[in-house]
UniProtKB/TrEMBL annotation:
InterPro entries: AraC-bd, HTH-like. This is AraC family ligand binding domain-containing protein. Keywords: DNA-binding. It holds the Pfam family AraC_binding. GO terms for biological process: regulation of DNA-templated transcription. It comes from Methyloraptor flagellatus. The lineage of its organism: Bacteria, Pseudomonadati, Pseudomonadota, Alphaproteobacteria, Hyphomicrobiales. SUPFAM superfamilies: Regulatory protein AraC.
Length: 111
């Protein structure tokens, strides 16, 4: 009897244009790919091994994970148990706006 694979993903918009959240639980791997957005996430349970521009990265429950726009990466579980993570995906223009890019400078410290 073949093992049943677990792969559940949910992507939801947020009130901020250019920002979506995703939730995933999976014991499956995925091939190298990239995204147009920044990704900032947290491993909730299990372990995740991925290859990226940073090299081989292992992340386990409680670890933060990140990916830059256009950065090639892949992923697979560490061990046989599924891993669960949540990600915030932010388009570069939205992140620049949230960071205040293009706004007047606050000046140098001490002024």
């Amino acid at each position: 009897m073949a093992m049943r694979r677990i792969h559940e993903a949910e992507v939801r918009p947020t009130p901020l244009a250019g920002v979506v959240v995703s939730r995933l639980i999976s014991d499956d791997g995925f091939p190298r790919h990239s995204h147009d957005e920044f990704g900032i996430g947290r491993i909730d349970t299990g372990g995740h091994r991925s290859w990226s521009d940073a090299g081989l990265v292992d992340a386990t429950a409680g670890d933060l994970i990140t990916v830059n726009p256009g950065e090639m990466h892949d992923g697979r579980p560490i061990g046989a148990a599924p891993r669960r993570w949540r990600m915030l995906h932010v388009v570069p223009e939205r992140l620049a706006a949230l960071a205040g890019e293009g706004r007047p400078s606050f000046g140098s410290p001490g002024r």
